[in-house]
What does this fold into?
Amino acid sequence: MKSTINYILWVLSLLSFSSCDRMNDLHDEYLQRGETTYLARIDDAKIFPGNKRAELIFVNKDAKAKTLTVYWRSRTDSVVYTIPENSVGQELKVQLTDLPEDYLTFELVTTTVDGKSKSLTSELSARIYGDNYQASLNTRLIDKAIYLESANELDVTWKGVFEGAVNIEIEYDGTDGNTRMLELPIEERSILYLNMFDDNLKYRTGYVPEENAIDTFYTDYVDLPFSELYVIEGLTFNGTNQYMTIANHPDFNISSGEVLSISLWMKTPIGNATQRLLMKRYTSITADPDNGNTGYGIAPLSPRRTYADWYYRQATNPNPGGGSNVLSANDYYPLDTWMHLTAIFNSATKQMKLYQNGNLVGTSTLPAAVPANPNIVNISDVVVGAWKEASTAAPYGFFKGEVAHLRFWKKELNLEEMQLDMANPVTAETPGLVAAYDLRKVIGTGTNLTISDIKGNHTAVLHGYSK
It folds into this structure.
């Protein structure tokens, strides 16, 4: 019995030693690796999305951390950022570029210089924006836009705001040849100064997809349609020595079968004297031996009536001075008040017409003795605000008042065209326009002053003015 017990104790002793050996084998593996040390986990991080990119901002809390690896798309893409020395507690930025447009989860892991110690993973998610978001954007719509040319002021009333819209960019060509740009905040109404505005007014809308986005997305530029507030403001004539000339040119003659229309705005405080508003003829027959004083003119005269004349040559009269046809308006004009005048000289019909503010106030027809389609040509300059006997003669009959928006047309303006002429600016491409002068726009310094023709062909020269 005793031997049996001793045998059992011996067997248990062997089992005990065997079990301890196996347990030691399990611990040895970890003891050989050494103790695992984890770096401080990144728990103070933010990500700011942009256009196929993002900016990661984090605070490093571990002096042993030397690199930060940022993974995305299940760790198939990554970027490694070297953490600057002595940056513990500082806010650091990592630029993440070439990102896909998608909802992405970013994993952040810091590592020691030898790579043996790492932090536990931190995760951040963000939507990255790109072409699809860009294509979804809409240009903000305009309710109305009015341009006041005299002040270079654009007044825009906008329609509703689309989500994410943050600004408007305005672009235009300047008179100096440079492209100019203005940035406007999102408002219901924008009033802005277009310095040196010339042409090609465009705008686009800027969007920020979310509050912390680092990029602004813009729609394509589109034309900014506007109506021009038509301001009647022109050149003042003092009635004593100021006038304007436009050099003689066939554009201002009335050749056989042609029509010439002249339109302008005028106002004068004078109602009891004849003043020359515009004239193209020399009153001395000898000043133009071939044509005499053939030509035309417009004048306010006493008592407060507008007047047009047409001097022509008669085939039966050897005198080059020929005859004249005079048309006096049957309506009085108001004193010191803007009035629109249109004078029409039609060689094909031999008719002369005069309109005030778009209303016909007189018609006259050349005598039957005048041959069909007469030529009304001369060598005279166009004189505005006075008249002259000859090119070298002193001017007379000075106009006192103001003249605006002087225009010459090689066509007969109809009533609709006159209404448009009264309310709208013209361009160099306006059909039938020969020359046009915005008399506010005086160019030059001293006494060398001119006013440009909108078509660039017939510059007007000022006399008696200085600035």
Summary: Confidence is low (pLDDT under 50) at residues 29-33. Residues 252 and 408 are 8 Å apart (CA to CA).
